[in-house]
Amino acid sequence: MSYIVGLTGGIGSGKSTIADLFSALNVPVIDADIVARKVVEKGSPLLSEIVAHFGQNILTEAGELDRAALRKLVFNDDKQKHWLNDLLHPAIRTEMQHQLAVQTAPYVIWVVPLLIENNLVEMCDRVLVVDVSPSVQLARAAKRDNHSDELIQKIMATQVSREERLKSADDVIYNEANFSDNGAHLKQQVLTLHQLYLELAEEKCNERNN
Q: Which positions in this protein are listed as binding ATP (predicted)?
């Protein structure tokens, strides 16, 4: 199994942007959100269960899951959120564990928004946090998802605080919008960590073989 770097951060922090930069360096990326979409794709048993529970209104015209509509439902109802999590989390975890197990690259980036909240840190060799201020999170997420500030704040409230997230970090990428030439700054941070993770992966491989 590859060395596992868990990549996490609050909503709107820029996890996908950072993951894409690692991917450009030919590092495998396993994204929990992509896995979550896979297990509820059109025609899947889990999607049928969700429709039976919530009704046809959570489907798009194409018959796929309307994730935005479902998000609004569950974030306004803790009981429904727990029902959905109990249904999906085991399937998502199983699929992620499979994808991690078959990796052969020196290291893999494992993107999990709720890495800390769902007690998955212990599955990682190292934790990388993408850090921004709560105000930047709110502005970015509201613009990206076209959600109200109120809904974004509710989502943020379900995640650990910035302080708690940073306590769990081995490494931090700062992704504030006020950096000059932010793209180059992010790339340099990723390149530096890329070299570090290659070295750490090699050390772990040598320890395992000795």
A: 12-17
Give tens-digit pLDDT for 16-67: 999 999 999 999 999 999 999 999 999 999 999 999 999 999 999 999 999 8
Please state the domain extents for the chain: 1-28+107-203, 34-102
Taking phi over 0 as left and psi of -120 to 50 as alpha, with beta for the rest, 85 belongs to alpha
Q: d(Cα 167, Cα 176) in Å, to the nearest integer?
A: 19
- Of 81, 172, 82, which Cα lies nearest the Cα of 126? 172
Q: What contacts 45, CB < 8 A, 6 or more positions away?
A: none
On the 0-12 / 13-18 / 19+ scale of CB atoms within 10 A, 119 is exposed
Query: H or E stretch including 11?
Result: none
Residue 42 annotated in ligand binding: no
- Class in CATH terms, 1-28+107-203: alpha beta
Q: Residue 15 annotated as binding?
A: yes
**16 annotated as ligand-binding:** yes
Tokens encoding 146: 């076209």
Q: Which two tokens stand for residue 23?
A: 């991917």
CB proximity list for 52: less than 8 A, separation 6 or greater:
none
